[in-house]
Amino acid sequence: MSQATKTAIDQTFEAKALQATRKVTDQTFQPDVLDSPKPVLVDFWAEWCGPCRMIGPLLEESVAEYGDRLTIAKLNVDENPATPTRYSVRGIPTLMIFRDGHPVATHVGSLSRSQLHAFLDANT
Q: pLDDT tens for residues 53-96?
């Protein structure tokens, strides 16, 4: 493999990594979400949740379109129980938009691509 090909592959990998959703935890929630200079959509999810797995790809796709306006993050509720409790997350998937350290919009349950985009457009 030539050096030019390796460089191109590295640049493509870096671009995709920058456009991926961000994983947050109980420990990183404050700096990654509450202290963020731009709005953050947090997807409260779990591995065993079918509807969560259905909207996961929609969120990944949305990073390319909405990444300049907000950060899209995922928090696994089984691995990080403190944050969902703090924000009274009772069902998953729960999508919550945070701005200036506070939740400003919430959607509970699965949604289509158009519903997700409408939710993001209305709240960012």
A: 999 999 999 998 998 999 999 999 999 999 999 999 999 999 99
- Tokens 């030019």: give the residue: 4
Mind giving me the DSSP string for 64-107?
HHHTTT-EEEEEETTT--HHHHHTT--SSSEEEEEETTEEEEEE
> Considering 24, 40, 41, 52, which one is annotated as catalytic?
52
Clarify whether 52 is annotated catalytic. yes
CB neighbour list of residue 96: distance below 8 Å, 6 or more residues apart:
41, 42, 44, 87, 89, 103, 105, 106, 107
> What domains are defined for the chain?
21-123 (3.40.30.10)
Tokens 């259905």: give the residue.
Answer: 54
What integer is the mean pLDDT of 47-52?
Answer: 96
Beta-carbon contacts of residue 68 (< 8 Å; ≥ 6 apart): none
Alpha-carbon Rg for the chain, nearest whole angstrom, is 15
Choosing from 24, 40, 42, 49, the catalytic residue is 49
Supply the pTM of this predicted model: 0.83
Residue 85 annotated to the active site: no
